[in-house]
Amino acid sequence: MAAPLFDATHAIQFDLSRGNVRSGEEQECVLLVPAAALARLTAAAPAEASDALGSALGDAIGRRARARLKEPGSDSNEAVVTQLAGEAALAGIGSVSIERWGRAVVVLVEGSPLASALLAPLVGSALEAMFERRVWCALLSSEGQLARVLVASESGTERVRDWIASGVPWGSALTRLQGEPA
Amino acid sequence: MSNAETVARLQKLLERVRTRAGARDGYRAGAMAAPVATAVDSAPVEEPDQLSTWTPPPPDGPVPEVAIPVDVDQVETTQLGVAEREAEEDTAGHFDSTERLVAAGTTVAYAGADEGSDNLEQSPAEPDGGLEAPAEATRSVADSVGEEAAEPAPASSRRPVMPEAEERLARMAFGAEEAPPPLHTPPPESGRVPASPADDFDSDPLDAPRQVRRPDEPLIAEATRALLLESSVPVAKLVGGPTRPVAMTFSAILDETLSL
Predict the structure, then answer these.
(1) Which of A7, A72, B166, B198 has a 20 to 30 Å separation from B214 between CA atoms?
(2) How many CA atoms lie within 13 Å of A70's alpha carbon, on the beta-carbon side?
């Protein structure tokens, strides 16, 4: 069964008389902020502030994607990714897709104007909003416009951060994470 | 032999001929025998014993005068006459009695042969060999008759039924020196035909001209290349489709990755 396409019709409503921009069925007010402004903010703010910002952005995307899904718990992988990627695109986060490396799920974010440090809390928060469960993420790599974010358990993400910090390639870190000698 | 004896013999022969003709065909009344007598008189005839195998019975009554139609054309020597022949015999002196008997006998033989073949004609004798001509001519007739008698039997009937008696006795007494060829050979046995010897095998039945390499000629590799298929031929054939994994929900995937 083919996954339903992302319907972006009237996804964002500009109320020029009021000077508001609204998005989604909930008519949530959004703000068009230059990416450079956010970059400057994250660069100056502490890590917890950046994580909070990223989590807030992801939570909004997740909630809107969940609203598009009938039953997120039983929807197919393609359907979930389609709606998630659609809402992320509307927010200007970039092109979102996922990869599976064995049992591990890796979310790819390509062409994002945000700093890579914001992507891991953003992805995690979006998934928590969609599935209403606790999710942990760790940044695997940021190569140019492409960033890879690992979705795993809390301990798993902590080990991967340590391996990558020690110079282990992200592929080997994924291999080690799944119990195989890297 | 004197002429009187010859004439007597001829008359005697004529009588026998008449008797035979009468016994076979009957006499023809008014038949003239004079030409025959003339013809017979002109030829020294003596019947050879080997030519007469049948002796007619003596006539019961008086023998009537009959004229036997004897074709006298065959005897060119009758032109010579008895007197002339005497003279010639005297002058030549090379004809002995045997030769004359042969000549006379052949004449009679011709006459006898004429009974069966009336149309036999003899070519005229040569002037130089007047006496030889009848002998030659009659010999040829007799030979032809003999050839007819001695004509080889057809191949189908030429096989001897049994060996000759002498050969058979000799074979029984001394044994056969070498086995005679069998008259009949058994038919070939059925079954597999034995293979011919390998030496007789000719690997080049077409007798194709073979290139003989000269000693100073460099060796040239003779490559044999396989005839591959054309690139347009569909070599690969897809059977069935790839196995697609069971569609997993994102929630299940999330569970797996969160277990790490």
Answers:
(1) B198
(2) 6
ipTM of the prediction: 0.82
Tens digit of pLDDT for each residue in B1-24?
Answer: 678 889 999 999 999 998 888 776
Distance between CA atoms of residues B157 and B155, nearest Å: 5
Tell me if chain B has a CB within 8 Å of the CB of A73: yes
- DSSP-assigned letter for residue B49: G
Q: CB–CB of A152 and B258 under 8 A?
A: yes
Q: Please indicate whether, in this complex, the C-beta atoms of A105 and B253 are within 8 angstroms of each other.
A: yes
Among the partner-chain residues B248, B250, B260, the one whose CB lies closest to the CB of A153 is B260
Terminal CA-to-CA distance of chain A, rounded, Å? 37
* Whether A127 contacts chain B with CB within 8 A: yes
**What amino acid is encoded at B137 in this protein?**
A
Name which of B249, B258, B260 is nearest A77 (Cβ-Cβ). Answer: B249
**Greatest CA separation for chain A:** 62
**Residue found under tokens 């004229």:** B67
Does the CB of A75 have a partner CB in chain B at under 8 Å?
yes
> Which residue has tokens 């195989």?
A180
Q: Give the predicted TM-score (pTM) of the model.
A: 0.46
pLDDT above 60: residue B48: no
On the 0-12 / 13-18 / 19+ scale of CB atoms within 10 A, A102 is middle
Element holding A22 (H helix, E strand): strand A20-23
- So what's the pLDDT on residue B115? 46
Are A152 and B248 inside 8 Å of each other by CB?
A: no
Q: Which of B249, B257, B259 sits opposite A75 (nearest CB)?
A: B249
Nearest 5°: CA angle at B56, between B55 and B60? Answer: 140
Whole-number Å distance between alpha carbons of A86 and A23:
13
Q: Are strands A104-110 and A95-101 parallel, antiparallel or unpaired?
A: antiparallel
pLDDT digits (tens, 9 = 90+) for A97-120: 999 999 999 999 999 999 999 999
